[in-house]
Amino acid sequence: MSGGSTSLAPTLDAAAQAQIARAAAVLRAGGLVAFPTETVYGLGAAAAQPEAVRRIFAAKGRPADHPVIVHLRSANEIDTWARTVPPAARALAAAFWPGPLTLVLPRSAQAHDLITGGQDSVGLRCPSHPWAQALLQAFGGAVAAPSANRFGHISPTTAAHVRADLGERSDATPTAAVDLVLDGGACPVGIESTIVDLTADVPRLLRPGSITREMLAAVLGHAVAEAGADAPRASGRLDSHYAPRTPLELVDAAALPARINALRGQRLALLAPAAAPLDGGSDLALRLIAPADAADYAQRLYAFLHELDAAAADRILVVRPPHGPLWEAVQDRLRRAAAA
Question: Which listed CATH number (3.40.50.920, 1.10.520.10, 3.50.50.60, 3.40.50.11030) goes with 248-338?
């Protein structure tokens, strides 16, 4: 567990600090900055500037009723953005912030409609990535940030993914929507934050992530409930999301040879365990080896999908990963990617 409500003071080299200072200036001026978090790269704007937040939606092609997450320097800022904060929320923040957990709470007057998608709730997170923390500290306020990709596409876990999808403003690309991309390397967690709704009497899981149900229950003293139809809208909950341009299909390992044989004549790109059975005569455009470890798989998932999508294949086949608590978030992302 991560935890604590005090601000972090990450140590970055002089070059990184110079980039952070430039990015903070861009945010103050109402611009957009793509920055690394421990989960995925976010597309950030000053949360208190509605017109800046509006630019996020335009850049991503994001529906106006789809809320964005507000990134905070520490849990000390939670009361600025939330109208009420139940004990369960404070317990979860103490246990997992800074870290990959988003808390959905009743919104305060500070949380305007562009952030909340017009709902009476707001999603709040305190990221642990040193570049994200440094940016929040240098900027001196909250940053609204969904993932830095076009809406519904594969999430970015490197700066290169961001630039390939959204671009970056420069003399060569003066019309790009993103003013600055901070390159802090590959994201160490690699999938989006766990989202927990705390607007009802019982905490509800809106999106699985690296903080599992079991970890949440250990702090709360009881299991989190499933989100029903009345749950707030939240990022990543659409049936189709995180999707490559190439059609993606999930297949059981035992059925893989037959499925490859049935698709003869198509160029296939494959993500499968090393031991997965293959049709010996198959001609794959690309084969990637799926890690056996859940955390490793999650960290590399979107990089795999970007690479598979770039293989000029007709179809992507992904062997279903294992089931179990540690695999729930990976299963969730792949299921939505295959629904496109």
Answer: 3.40.50.11030
**CATH assignment, 14-226:** 3.90.870.10
pLDDT in tens, 76-123: 999 999 999 999 999 999 999 999 999 999 999 999 999 999 999 999
For the chain, the helix, strand and coil percentages under 3-state DSSP, each to the nearest 5:
35, 20, 50
The pTM of this model reads 0.94
- The three-state (H, E, C) secondary structure of 127-138, written as one string: CCCHHHHHHHHH
The per-residue b/e assignment along 195-231, b for 16 or more CB within 10 angstroms, e otherwise, is: bbbbbeeebbbbbbbbbbbebbeebbeeebeebeeeb
Assigned token pair, 221? 């003293």
DSSP summary character for residue 85: -
